[in-house]
Amino acid sequence: MDKPIASLIRHLRKFGHIPDDRARLIEGYFALELVPGGGFYLRENKVSYHSGFIAEGVMRYCNIGADGELLTCYFVAENDLAGDPESFARQTPSKLILQAVTDTLVVTISRDRYEALIARFPEFERIAAQMAQAFMTSLINQRSFLLNNDAKSKYLHFLEHFPHILNRVPLGMVATYLGIKQQSLSRLRAGL
Predict the structure, then answer these.
(1) Which pLDDT score, from 0 to 100, does residue 53 have?
(2) How far apart are CA 144 and CA 147, in angstroms?
(3) Nearest 5°: CA angle at 162, between 157 and 163?
(4) In sequence order, what are the residues at sequence separation of 6 or more whose Cβ sits closer than 8 angstroms to the Cβ of residue 43?
(5) Which of 74, 82, 161, 189 has the largest count of CB atoms under 10 Å?
(6) What are the tens digits of pLDDT across the range 96-120?
(7) CA separation for the pair 81, 106 (Å, rounded)
(8) Tell me, what DSSP letter sits at residue 149?
(9) 99: part of which helix (H) or strand (E)?
């Protein structure tokens, strides 16, 4: 098993028992995709035909602001999911945008290959659903914290919980994630 796929298997095993023979089976259904920094893994109003797991790199979920600028809603990095679980499951247009901030290696599976894997290993559907639920809960908790705290608290929380992301993304993206202006973030950083 190569390292990126092995990372996925280790992560999946947190949500259910996967014997080694099933791990080898799973490996055959996934592929590696390199999304260059600035590239898009998912675009708004497009169906998510693939779902992924980030092996290396940083991506951001974002939406389009009133001025047409991309605003960061969430950052995701190694061992996080990449995609829109609802769009992937229902094959409906996504409301999300997922952009690579750095060159990002994604372990990815198409909807067709996912269905074929479920046919061979039905338990995988439950494991994948639990992993997706844990991921979405994490994103909801992030957003809730950001909506209910002041700028300093939000930044300190970001430093504590996402130190692996801070030095890998532009400060402007961090500012939009925190819901503050970049100048305010610079002043806040200088004051700490």
Answers:
(1) 96
(2) 5
(3) 105
(4) 94, 97
(5) 82
(6) 999 999 999 999 999 999 999 999 9
(7) 9
(8) S
(9) strand 97-100
In whole numbers, what is the pLDDT of the chain averaged over residues? 93
Q: Say if residues 49 and 110 touch (Cβ distance below 8 Å).
A: yes
pTM for this prediction: 0.90
Under 8 Å CB-to-CB from 93, ≥6 apart: which residues?
44, 45, 46, 47, 87
Please give the structure tokens belonging to residue 40.
């898009």
Helices (H), the chain: 3-12, 20-27, 85-90, 111-120, 123-147, 151-161, 163-166, 171-178, 182-190
Superfamily classification of domain 3-136: Jelly Rolls (2.60.120.10)
Ordered by start, the domain boundaries in the chain are: 3-136, 149-192
Q: Is the pLDDT of residue 1 over 50?
A: no
User: What does the DSSP 8-state code read for residue 67?
Assistant: T
Distinct helix (H) and strand (E) counts, the chain: 9, 8
**d(Cα 26, Cα 44) in Å, to the nearest integer?**
29
